[in-house]
Amino acid sequence: MKNAQKKFCFGKAAKTALFAAALALIFPCHAKKAAAKDAANEYQKEALYSTQNLVVDKGSKEFGSLSAAQIVDAMKFGWNLGNTLDAFAGGSEKNGWSGRNASLGVKTETNWGQPKTTQAMIAGIKAKGFSAIRIPISWHDHIYSSYTIDSAWMKRAKEIVDWAIGEGLYVIINVHHDNITPATCTPNGHKGFSPASSCIDESKRYLYNVWSQITTAFNNGYDERLVFETMNEPRLPGDKHEWNWEAGCAACKDAAKCVNELNQLCLDTIRESGGNNAKRLVMVPPYVAAPTSAVSGAFVMPKDPSPDGRLALSVHMYSPYNFAMESPGSKNFTDAHKNDLNYWFDQLNSKFVKKGIPVVIGEMGATNKNNDKQRAAWFKFFCGKTKACGMAAFLWDNGQWQVPSSGSYDELFGYYNRKEQSWYFTKPDLVEAGINARN
Fold first, then answer.
1. Is 30 helix (H, G, I), strand (E, B) or coil?
2. I want to staple 412 with a disulfide (CB 3.0 to 4.6 A). Which of 89, 368, 384, 417 is the partner?
3. Buried-exposed string 410-433: b where 16+ CB fall within 10 A, e elsewhere
């Protein structure tokens, strides 16, 4: 997009065919704009960011012929570069960016206690036997006024992606901790997005401008090994249903509707960038990326304008919660836990995979409760289920692995010693159990 203020015609048909035809004959673009204004909650696509230092992909790679299901199956078992490019300092996870029209710079990569990513770290992921890497990226701490992403941040993201591609890994990049509350959603606020009707226009404005810049920086220079994920865990921060879906909840229904709209906008933006992005695999999440909301009737997959139709469902499964995430919860992986996993894998398999929509479990893991043998059994069972369903799973790794003196098991999802390229929990080897089961 060469013009920073370029506007795109986007809207429904005019109120009457006669009026639409008349306008179209005289002012075709204006006719569509008028129609859009007549449509409720219709967002006018507009590139507001500056193109002065825009990072442009000038590469050229041939895109392969693998289908969406074949790409997902090839990803097998992956690893998350957690608490790194997704870390931020200019606000909170609930409220997003602090409001400064300036970037906090690439130093935010280490804000959450993880070391600066190196090429050796990425090589260590490949050497362990992983087939893919998910690189969560937060953008709101790196945006100037008019939704302009700091070019240094974009280049840093490209550098890490290029290392991973060079190792032969599949790579997922996304819009991660850019969730905000409806209360902090202001026109042209540049803070992020919220799946709430009161914030839908600003959310679309934010996501359209961010994805327009991402797709400019990542396009023809990347083949099918690069995968896009529209959003991470789109939800209502601070709401009592922030982390859970409830069919009878009005706010949940509204949020699900908005998530559907935002997924469609992101997908359209990616496809409209053309080139390899017109064919690229795109992952789309339901509300809070939960299987419960995915299988609800409120979630719908977006319509893909690409004839290739490379789409996948994105969900997160720290399941069963009592074993995998709750503190103290249960230390033992029981038959009841296996039955719980069987149920949800069967639901996702029957409602999506068997209907031609592959599933990527973008985050999974079992927190450390000093129960390595039980966790090894969980890894083997969980990853065996993903293989049976042709799904891919990505281990969440936030670097936190030791049980503190308090005895709390909260968020202990560390597995990889990034400084030394070695692995925690090797007797038994938890990660190897997952890799072997999925391969």
1. helix
2. 368
3. eebbbbbebeebeebbeeebbbbb
Using CA atoms, how far apart are residues 370 and 390, in angstroms rounded to an integer? 31
Per residue in 282-326, pLDDT (tens digit) is 999 999 999 999 999 999 999 999 988 999 999 999 999 999 999
Catalytic option among 233, 261, 316, 337: 233
Residue 414 makes CB contacts below 8 A (sequence gap 6+) with 368, 397, 398, 399, 400, 401, 402, 424
Closest of 299, 311, 321, 381 to residue 353, by C-alpha: 311
pLDDT tens, residue by residue, 181-215: 988 888 887 889 999 999 999 999 999 999 999 99
Contact 194, 246 (CB under 8 A): no
Helix axes 200-217, 250-272, angle to 10 degrees: 30
Q: Is 316 a catalytic residue?
A: no
Cα 251 to Cα 242: distance, rounded to the nearest angstrom:
10
Is 233 known to be catalytic? yes
- 176 as an active site residue: the answer is yes
Q: Which residues pair with 144 in a beta bridge?
A: 148
Token code pair at residue 330: 């249960």
Catalytic residue among 109, 224, 229, 363: 363
Q: What is the DSSP string of 293-338?
A: HHSSTT--PPPP-STT--EEEEEEE--SHHHHT-SSS-SS--HHHH
The token pair that represents 179 in the structure block: 């969730």
Please classify residue 328 by burial: count the beta carbons closer than 10 Å to its beta carbon, then call 0-12 exposed, 13-18 middle and 19+ buried: exposed
Give the three-class secondary structure for 7.
strand
- Candidates 142, 176, 190, 337; catalytic one: 176
